[in-house]
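Quick one: structure for this chain?
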Amino acid sequence: MARGVRFHQHGGPEVLRIEEIAVAPPAPREVQIRVKALGLNRAEASLRRGSYIETATLPSGLGLEAAGIVAAIGEGVEEFAPGDAVSIVPPVSMVRWPAHAELATFPAELVVKHPPALDFETAAAVWMQYLTAFGALVDLARLGRGEFVVITAASSSVGLAAIQIANRIGAVPIAVTRTSAKAQALREAGAAHVIASAEQDLQSRLEQIAGPNGVRVVLDAVGGPAFVPLTAAMAPGGILIEYGGLSPEPTPFPLANVLGKSLTLRGYLVHEIVRDPARLTAAKAFILDGLADGTLRPIIARTFPFEEIVEAHRYLESNTQFGKIVVTV
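Got it. Here's what it folds into:
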C-alpha cells in the first residue's frame, strides 16, 4: 500500500483526495519508483475537470511528471537498478500511469537517469515543459538561428522552456503575456522582447519588432481572438503551432491571412514525441545536453508538500505563477 492522489468525481481542486492504494509489483519492462517530487501541469487540472483529451475512469489517479528513486524493476529491465535517481517522461496516459503517488510505476522507456546535479524538485520540472517546447520549435518548426519566434503564455513552464530553447538555438524569443506585471521577469528569463497583449496592440508590436518580413514561427497555448493579430504578423509560409487552447473564447479561423500567406496552423501534442522512439531519443539528448551546460534551467514558481495537493492545484488555476509548480513527497 502507498498513498496516492485520486478523485471520485469531476470538479475543482477540492475533489482531490489522498488515499491508501494497493500497488502491484512492476510487470515486465516496468520500473517502480519511490517518488520524491511531482511536477504539476494544466493537463492534470483538465483531467480532474473532465475536459482533457483522455477520459478518466472514476475513481481515477492523475499526474504526468515525477522524480524519485527506483524501488523495483520488472523482468527484462537491465538499464536501471534499485537506488537509481530517475525522472519520468510524461506517459501518453496518466490514467494508466498516474504519477501523483508515493509509489508509481512506468514503462522503462519513459524513465530517465537525470544529471546528478539536479535535485528531485528540479528533475520533476524537466520533461513536460522541455519536451513540449522542443517538439514544437525544433522537431516541427525547425526554428533556426536569428529567426523570431512568438511565444504566448510565456510565463508558463512551457513558455519559459521555449524561451530558453530559442536562446540555445540562437533564435530571438518574443514573449507574449497578458499584462506587464511579469514583463521584467520574462526579460530576466531570456525574452528578447515582451508584449503585454491586454495593454498593447499585438499585431502592430509584432510588426515593429519583426519588421516587414514578419515572424515565421508562433508557439501558442491560448487560441481565441489572438489568432487574427498573430497570423496577420506572420511571414509568408509561416507556421503557428497550437498546443493549449486556454482561451474560453471561440478561436476564429483567419482565412484571409492563412490563404494570403500560405500559413500552416498546426495542432500539436507532446505525445507525438513520446510515441516515436527516434524523435524521443533526439529530444532527450538535446534536453540533457542543455541541462548539463546550463542553457536549460527549470524555473520553479513554488513548491508544496504532498499533503497540500489541493492547495497546489488551486495555485495552478490562479494563473499567478511564474514557471513550474512542484509538489514534494
